[in-house]
């Protein structure tokens, strides 16, 4: 009997209204009861415009988010979208930033709850807030199965109460109270928009339930956009009636303006009713912050950006107890460090960063291809929606003040530092923003061009033999380059004359060895002596003049891998347009077995191509290994194994085999296997910045390997020339479009 195939599926139980309620619930809550007074104190009646401006930016971002969500209908929210578009480093920044923003909003809600509790009975505000925070921490630590349904119920009740409030108070509005529109100046309106931006925090996180939504291609865009529009209308409506009823000064003089207005209109019963609603809203917001505290750490831990400890599940309560404990504790601690307006500014600053990156992600993905990204909803107003979202957000950020701006910058450095310290070379996704911009995210299948001309810079007679042997195995023409470094104080011509006068002995040895080297394959050979003030500049220049396909350089002292800025190899890696091979160790007299660490990226494909050439010329066998995490999806493992099998079949003239290794540490796996091979070839896939010109993974393997290692890298420098090329390219397109439209007129 044939085996029965098992198919696993995730249930989709959320319809439009459930998704709409989640999106609305993340925004409407504590802010609606607390921020009107703060906003009017800063901008007067202009605060109405502030909320509208914040709402318009949120609506624009909700449209961008809808496109991202239908293209990536998976859990993870803004963290997932941004990390998959811009790489793991940006993911670390946005993951930590979103998590901290959620904590700030939770603390903000706790203070608001304590303020409204005063209406029922005067108590120490910070004591009430702290006790409530601890109680919520304990409740979530032990588990709360119905909290999700309770949140949706609270949202519906709040919308009904606020609708009735707007209707009743609008009858008492006096138009003269709305004037002047900007008593504190126009800038105050924009500044206030940044302060109240915390109200819209959380919309992007509604996408965390995208994989549970029925018919996501329709329900996700409708729910996200409807949530943003409804919340914006409610915020603007509340501000209009508050300002129109009490005037700028009246609304600005209290932290609880809605309850005070309800007291004027309906007496104590109205005041207590609104206060009770505010307690529900602030409690819901604070509880939601703790309830969602594991969302970002969970998503980051799946991508190896966060320790598993942080999201471990309690054996008894089945809750992410460590994440809840840390989040709740930090929320309570922040109560005693910042006042309510500072919390609003800080939370708003992080929300602005999230919105900027979400809108930029759509712009990038419209211009570049991300495998598997096929959104069913596309913004019909692209790119104007995204430009408005980015520019509007960026204008608000510096107006929030020095502290929020400082916190934002520190968070960026903290996220990038955490990535470098903890997640580099193991975090997902393995590609970065530049790979996506270059359409180099997918595993490369095209065969690279064969190596023809090889440039070998020599500086040490002891290294020359290995470099020339490698060049002889790889290329058809060998160019040996000896650079004579001329002091900056004298001209190159004078340096050349002094060189010939002294007849430097070391260069004579270089030339003699090169001429006597027994090139086994009859390769054409040239010898160049170059005079330059900078060795690296000479190597780069001569490689371009000679049209070299590859530059072979050697490092034999493992400590040299701890190079500093300004090193010759650094400069060549940064600026050379040629492919580069760095050899660590001495080649054996006979190469019989070659190991290739393969990950499907461009440099890895180049490394395999060079391995084929070496094997053809030496008769060596090739072993291709690819390392995947044991937790990787079985279908992806099977796909990679199938790809490796296909690569082996394309090497008919050479004994070749492959192995898919399941290891958590790529470094340990390669080092373990490399001991049994004469040469290990690694394609370096690190970033293009000076701090990681040669990736830390490649450095560690080369430093600890017992056998020779060749690291292959094709540098893609971001130079002034490339930037100019891009600017001219888009300028030409814009000019052509202008001419075409003018011709129509």
Describe this structure in words.
The protein is α/β, with parallel strands linked by helices and 745 residues long. It has 3 domains: 17-433, Amino acid/polyamine transporter I, CATH 1.20.1740.10; 449-558 and 566-581, HUPs (Rossmann fold, 3-Layer(aba) Sandwich), CATH 3.40.50.620; 588-718, HUPs (Rossmann fold), CATH 3.40.50.620. 58% of the residues lie in helices and 9% in strands. It has 26 helices and 10 strands. It has helices spanning 16-25, 30-43, 47-71, 77-86, 88-117, 125-142, 147-170, 186-195, 216-252, 257-291, 295-302, 321-334, 340-367, 384-396, 402-423, 433-437, 461-474, 492-502, 505-516, 535-545, 568-575, 602-618, 634-649, 666-674, 696-704, 720-744; strands at 453-457, 477-485, 524-532, 550-555, 579-584, 593-597, 621-628, 656-662, 679-683, 709-714. It has a 10-stranded mixed β-sheet with strand order 3-2-1-4-5-10-9-6-7-8, with helices on both faces. The chain is elongated and about 105 Å long. Residues 5-10, 556-566, 687-692 and 717-723 have low confidence and may be disordered. It is a multi-pass membrane protein. It is found in: Membrane.
Descriptive labels:
transmembrane helix, Universal_stress_UspA, UspA, Rossmann fold, 10 strands, single chain, Amino acid permease, Amino acid/polyamine transporter I, alpha/beta, ten-stranded mixed beta sheet
